[in-house]
């Protein structure tokens, strides 16, 4: 267990820089999730920490050692890959034991350790199977087992759940989270799924195009997104965004206007954001009104896609039992306190 | 009428045959002869596949040793006794041709025959101070010793005499050395092996010693004996008359020919062979008549002389061969002389029988077997081949 | 959120040297040694070919020297091989025969491989094994029956006679079956729903999906026919129908071989295949490589 | 068409399958199976191609099994197999393994290794024959002798001839095997290696425990096809030993060559057919054993 | 456009029957989603409708024709596959046009039709690309385009979204739904993701082990699941299930008891189900109380995993801004009206 520090980390492939001066401190025992769209550099960062990818600039420290030039095996890390990378020709026991091959433990101790890990992951009775005889979730657990067996200071996960189906994914993310609560190793976890990030992380690192956009707890990034990108990326369905203008303490957007005193010159262009959760369908004139174009019932709630005119469509939430009808005209209400405002460069105003 | 003629590819033979066909067609305007030729290496297979299928030629050229099979299978028709009467042929052709007679009729006849002689490299002879080719085997060995060259580590770089059982040496051993050392290789009908005698062992031992004790040769030197001789890396070389053409076209090589060296007691012997022309059973009616006419022409003196001049092969009739001009020829002379005491082995399976002798020598050189033991094994093996063949 | 971003899979991008490390920069002595040894091996591999080319530009008397660079390179032999014009004809014959046979074999091998791979019917394993078992009989033994057949049908001494035994190959069938395993059934079913019949599905859907494999198979079969010897020899009578390998044997005469001419002929026969290979290298290698993907 | 419409999906598949196979089946039956069957029948007959075929029961087989040459040849055939297959596989694997890790001029080197596959056997056999000559013409021996080592009688020796003849066969097939091996190597996901690197195991362990087991399908393919190739070796031997076919003293003669000689030099077709049947059986058994042993357990 | 009727449909592979007498009527223009766990027979049913799989027993009718023995091409259907099955060697235009190959339209009409479909799917400018140059979502649209171009009576989709990532999946399901609202063909859509089923379907067919468990609108299956399987399968996170006993108008489960008069013998064993949405964290004694073992923040809401003793863990929902802490003791409240009850055979009691 150890802290992990990235200092001005830079990565370039040939002449194209794909990571630009990444700085991050991960505390001992912390669970940090990297999230971002495809190609933003998440895997690259992780692989640099693992020592699988050369470091172009900057420094990586694990504990208080600079590990830039250490081989992966000397960095005291373990990694779980997206495709699990478990060996199809070896039994589960051999797969898990593979991480101990170079250790100086006595063979009996090794066996004991394997059994321990298997018990922890409740796979004791699967130890003699081959991967082909396992389900997706079980394979995933073998991969985690192989990483755990060495009890590394830092665990690295690269989208380990993305090959699983929805139900299994939900289940596995809970398992990993519980595991972390038990073993408390430092974990860096990469995903492009914001739900995964939100539910698992102690802190989330949101990346885009090789830059860190925001680092914070799930609540922070959800409620106080630093910019439009974060605001849109976190939360499902995405935040509704509308072009707005500010004048005289009033924000005008899509025909509606909200009183919100801001220190801005009159006529400033803004973007207004409202999460669907904060936009409710209710009787009586509200912020917007429009006709329902699509309904997505989710059970308790229903997502309502409302065409508010001017080519704008917003998503609102309605109760699942009494949703509006398709084509119906509805009124949408929102609390000014829940509105997000961004300037023209996309930075949050408050 | 059109008739089909087959032989193997050898530029001068093809040219000669074209001349003969031209002459023949001029004399017989109603007959057309089509010549087809095939690569030498696979000629035998090609013919054997085609003739039984009835696809072959009307007149075909075959090695004399193959004829038996075709005759037994009725694929060859006898030559008509009126035009090719046995008496006349016996009188007019070299005696070895008599092997072609069966049940009172001739099955086939050659245009030309061939024999062995000793080729020598004139420049190397001169350099070693020899003026005459070796007259007997002792001289052969001593001259070869004198002309052999070696490099610093004792490896031979130029052989005094080529050896190569897989080339012509197996004939030399079988029909020449055996007889010169006093052995008789086969019974008269060639169905019994008789060379497994002390004399036969002497002959084999002599041959093996060329590479062994005498050390004047390396078998497989430069891959093929003739290649070594042509490249000027062999002083002496035993080969057939068919080699003349290739040597003549080798620039820069000066060479001469002599009769094969005589045996210890002066015995002379030679191996003669020939390719015959025969009429296949496919030719019927007027084709047969045309084929007979064609046969008649290509076994005439005129044809033989053309063949000699174009191909360099020796006429099958003494009347054509033993002209003063031919016998005095420095190149043809020794071959023609050899014809008079030449023996034509009657083979049952030429390649198998050759292999027996090749192996006999290999056993001595590669496995250190004694010549006597090796020869005994060879005799038994060859007898088995003959027995199997004649049993059918 | 846009969906237009196109990103090849990371694995494909990172497909450098397997296990290629990234930690140590600079010239690694292990790599230098490895490369040197590989380069030396490669030179050894092409030595005989260079020797052949060298022999083809030597004068006959120089044939037996060990030097690789001829004293006075000459195209004398090329002149001799090409002078009587037969070589061009042989070349053309070889080209025609190898091409037609290749097209046919690729067509039928793919057809059979596809049928054995994508149709489920009783007896297909048997058919497959029976076809594979033909690999175990040496061609030499089949010549006589083929010859009889060719004679009965009047195919002797014709192009067709030379070509017919090679119109399909067991090896190709095996390879194509392997290749078609990699084509997902969904493609075929989609086409079935779109109303194509099975033949159209094979031809216009499945075949284009295995083009690299077809090109590899084509190369194998073409080379096989380009160098085929014994059957073309047996079945042809007139020299106009000789293929290059058969033609080359006319350079060997009784008890002696004109090696410089054989080498020249072989060089002339090999050069086109070398050129084709070098031009289409990537494509061919990719196809050949596919052959091994699934055992 | 009406009838066809009434067939079930399965039956339609069967109809189509046989439609696809109709021409090929006729082809294989006529061009391959019939002659094969004919060869089996012929193995119980005696025939010299010229006369009528005659039944002679098991005589051919009796002769064959009593023939010391056959046993020698049988042994040679297996020597080709058990020397040739491992040698060529090990070489090609080593080269593929290292070539796969090389980037500089990768394509060029690969092309050079593949080139021999494109050459003509006859011409190359001659070149190799030339390499093997004693001094002064042979490159190998010239080299040895200039290094002060005594000459090796490559082709003119009962011990060295077989390996010497085998070498060009291995050489010619190496390029193909290298490519196949490289494809097999490339098909292994990189993350397997990365996981192993993180676990810190040695290259040797990675090779033995990950690379090789995962290459099993490739290895099976190559073992089976290269074994069939070596058991059927002929062209190289034939062209390397034209002076003394299969020699010296049958030291290099493989079964196919014996078949060829029996058929086309001795015209003993029945006997050759019996040898063919033996070869066929051997090939079948060896292939089946290999498949059994190598298919995943 | 046509109705689709499955009557006593049976499928057996060899001796194992995998579909047991399926009965279903799909109305003209209806959007029906088949959902169920892996291996339950969804694809098999779809493929039988398409004519790709032989029918062992029963009848399939499209419109009023029995199509059992018709070839796929004569059934007037189109199908979209999970891996899209678009041909990599053809341009988008040719791919879409592929469905028209056998049609007797004039070439110019075909072109017009292709352009029309492309416009509908907003892919006009992609028509000349090859599939390799398209993103996952675009490929999916090509596959849909190819199906649409023939304007079939019935559209069949087999898990067409499962190869897409979460964000794209959400977007594509909306697109398909909108498309259906426009073109109104009959659609049968297979998925194993219940969210997809809920949001897209007019009616959902829930299958398990070759049997239909329930057919109904999304609201019906969510609010009135016919049995435990449906109750658990629909809704994320899954319904909490607790063993309970009934006696004297009281249901007792995990130490809690609820007054609910039922016509059951005393001592009957039951299963009680409460959706996480219906279980809220609030102060004061409620139905259950326990300690928080895991928190999954989702933004507006937080999932709270509560250990209520006796080895039971239930999931509840809490507000996203003020969630309880890990290890804290919380009280869970539920409305008896929202409880689901199932008998021992798993059938719903009310
Ligand atoms: N070997 C490479 N050579 C060149 N560019 C590369 C290489 N590997 C990755 N890149 C580029 O670096 C950038 C970051 O890639 P990375 O794999 O880290 O993305 P990611 O965030 O993990 O995406 P995903 O979610 O798709 O896995 C991408 O633009 C990619 O194209
Ligand atoms: N060709 C076949 N032979 C035998 N059994 C089969 C075959 N195809 C499918 N099955 C069996 O039929 C059952 C239904 O399979 P089906 O593919 O319809 O499931 P599914 O619901 O589509 O599952 P998934 O969500 O995994 O696609 C499964 O138990 C499967 O094992
Ligand atoms: Mg990644
Ligand atoms: Mg399915």
TrEMBL record, chains A, E:
GO terms (BP aspect): carbohydrate transport
ABC transporter domain ranges (all copies): 4-234
Pfam families attached to this UniProt entry: ABC_tran, TOBE_2
Keyword Repressor: no
Protein name: Multiple sugar transport system ATP-binding protein
InterPro entries according to UniProt: AAA+_ATPase, ABC_transporter-like_ATP-bd, ABC_transporter-like_CS, ABC_transpr_MalK-like, ABC_transpr_MalK/UgpC-like, Mo/tungstate-bd_C_term_dom, NA-bd_OB-fold, P-loop_NTPase
GO molecular function, one term: ATP binding
SMART domains assigned to the protein according to its UniProt record, in alphabetical order: AAA
Highest rank taxon of the organism: Bacteria
Keywords, in A-Z order: ATP-binding, Nucleotide-binding, Sugar transport, Transport
Family to which the UniProt record says this protein belongs: Belongs to the ABC transporter superfamily.
UniProtKB/TrEMBL annotation, chain C:
Topology of the protein relative to the lipid bilayer: Multi-pass membrane protein
Family indicated by similarity: Belongs to the binding-protein-dependent transport system permease family.
Full protein name: Carbohydrate ABC transporter membrane protein 2, CUT1 family (TC 3.A.1.1.-)
Domain ABC transmembrane type-1 residues, every copy: 91-280
Claim: Cell membrane is one of the keywords in the record: yes
Family annotation (InterPro entries): MetI-like, MetI-like_sf
GO cellular component, one term: plasma membrane
Record-linked CDD domains: TM_PBP2 (cd06261)
Segments passing through the bilayer: 32-53, 90-113, 125-147, 159-180, 201-223, 261-280
Keyword tags: Cell membrane, Membrane, Transmembrane, Transmembrane helix, Transport
Phylogenetic placement of the source organism: Bacteria, Pseudomonadati, Pseudomonadota, Alphaproteobacteria, Rhodobacterales
Stored PANTHER family: ABC TRANSPORTER PERMEASE PROTEIN MG189-RELATED (PTHR43744:SF12), ABC TRANSPORTER PERMEASE PROTEIN MG189-RELATED-RELATED (PTHR43744)
Major subcellular location class: membrane
Subcellular location: Cell membrane
Biological processes per GO annotation: transmembrane transport
Automatic annotation (TrEMBL), chain D:
Subcellular location: Cell membrane
Topology of this chain in the membrane: Multi-pass membrane protein
Cellular component terms per the entry's GO annotation: plasma membrane
Domain annotation ABC transmembrane type-1: ranges: 74-290
Transmembrane segments: 14-34, 78-99, 111-131, 169-193, 214-234, 272-294
Keyword set, alphabetical order: Cell membrane, Membrane, Transmembrane, Transmembrane helix, Transport
Pfam families with a match to the protein in the record: BPD_transp_1
Superkingdom, taxonomy of origin: Bacteria
Keyword Transmembrane: yes
One BP term from GO: transmembrane transport
InterPro entries on file: ABC_transporter_permease (IPR051393), MetI-like (IPR000515), MetI-like_sf (IPR035906)
Similarity annotation: Belongs to the binding-protein-dependent transport system permease family.
Name of the featured protein: Carbohydrate ABC transporter membrane protein 1, CUT1 family (TC 3.A.1.1.-)
Species assigned in the record: Roseicitreum antarcticum
Lineage: Bacteria, Pseudomonadati, Pseudomonadota, Alphaproteobacteria, Rhodobacterales
